[in-house]
Design brief:
The structure is a homodimer.
Chain A (H helix, E strand, L loop, with lengths): L1 H22 L2 H8 L4 H7 L2 H15 L13 H17 L6 H11 L5 H22 L7 H20 L1 H16 L2 H27 L7
Helix pairs in contact in A: 1-2, 1-4, 1-6, 3-4, 4-6, 5-7, 5-8, 5-10, 7-8, 8-10
Chain A binds a DNA duplex through helix 3.
DNA sequence: GCGTCCATTAAACATCCGTTTGAAACAAGC
DNA sequence: GCTTGTTTCAAACGGATGTTTAATGGACGC
């Protein structure tokens, strides 16, 4: 039945996100799903295709999509919105639904499912961020530099998911709690990033930036 | 003999760093090392103790230590030096010695050996960075905020190691090459970070920062 | 009732894993 | 030469893995 398929994807997603592809066994999946070991072969062919389906399901049901912002939003407001949304995804809970964790795991150690995920889902997000970064910089800044700066913005957000354990060890549980509230971290990262971008803008802008100049 | 021990550690380190603990088999290690499968049991007891020895060996031969800077260095110069050193570690080669990669892997998915590694090596480095960040900010900025800002600096450096494959996919091989030269990335991250910190400093500084002011 | 198709099942399959065995090779001391 | 201790070796162990088989159950059309 189709219910078995869904149950398998759901269960496998949880376990894959918790333990990774290699360390999750088909018997473990089937036991938790209450199905027979052969059901995976029957519905998906093999373990790897089940994994791919789980990843697909993950970012279909948790689609962090480029968000449409208010009409007259200024570039800084747009950046703030993007960062806030990212931090919401990164911190939405310690162990929320498994969807985010599975995607993050896939992005950190890419397998076969990775490229599709990037093309389908990360590319648009990054393009949107790059667009906003561009609005905050003079046109003289080359594309590759703008991409690097966009990386700097993304990096700050990713840290709080990928290096949670280290962060805890470094600053202590108490401080780490304070650092990982969505509102506070989004505010801090936004301010830091706007400052960084402005710094680049004013350096470059001395030559070619200000609106209404020579051409 | 002792040469076998060393050969095993060296080989195992390379493979562990490339594929992780689970995905590396003892047979693979021994084949590459040109030894018998039983040699691991004989010299180390089991696979896990060989792994621990490899991690130890890794950060004994690649000790990222706080660097002593020139005497009269300004805080921005100190920050630049720290970031440059970090990027040197992150980018020193695509596949250099396996030491860094193994440590990074350990930090991303901590095992029991992780806390010791943090306490012994990461803590001093982070403390040094926090110290420099503090010098760049007014004293009114609370500790937890300074820690968060230090995270923002570190995060930018870590991105280029942990998300290399995604970065490649996003901006293309050509641009990614340009973004991952040590000098260029260190310059970009330093400028961005100094701007971000300055932004925080001037906001806070309106009350208490500038040297030689009211209070 | 009967045949057909889909879904599920228990059992077995072949392979790989980390580990262990027992003997062989080797060097050093006496 | 013989013993002793250390190191290496081929082979096998017990168990876990992903996968496959062949049989069973049930729903539906006729």
């Amino acid at each position: 039945m189709d219910a078995t398929r869904q149950k398998l994807i759901e269960t496998a997603g949880q376990l894959f996100s918790r333990d990774g592809f290699e360390s999750t066994t088909v018997r473990e999946i089937c036991q938790h799903a209450g199905t027979n070991v052969a059901s995976i072969h029957y519905h998906f062919g093999d373990k790897e295709r089940l994994y791919i389906e789980a990843v697909k399901h993950a970012h279909c049901h948790q689609p962090p999509s480029p968000q449409p912002w208010a009409e007259g939003a200024t570039p800084p407001q747009k950046l703030a919105a993007i960062i806030h949304q990212m931090m919401t995804v990164m911190l939405d809970a310690e162990t929320p639904s498994w969807h985010t964790e599975l995607m993050m795991r896939e992005l950190a150690r890419p397998t076969s499912a990775c490229e599709a995920l990037v093309r389908e889902f990360i590319d648009p997000l990054f393009a949107q961020l790059l667009c906003v970064v561009t609005e905050l910089l003079p046109p003289s800044v080359p594309l590759v530099e703008r991409q690097g700066l966009a990386f700097s913005v993304v990096a700050q957000c990713l840290l709080y998911r990928y290096h949670r354990p280290i962060g805890r060890l470094l600053v202590g549980e108490n401080h780490f709690q304070q650092l990982t509230t969505i509102e506070e971290s989004a505010r801090r990262i936004t301010e830091f990033s706007l400052g960084g971008l402005q710094s680049v803008a004013t350096r470059e802008g001395a030559v070619a930036s200000k609106p209404g100049e020579s051409s």
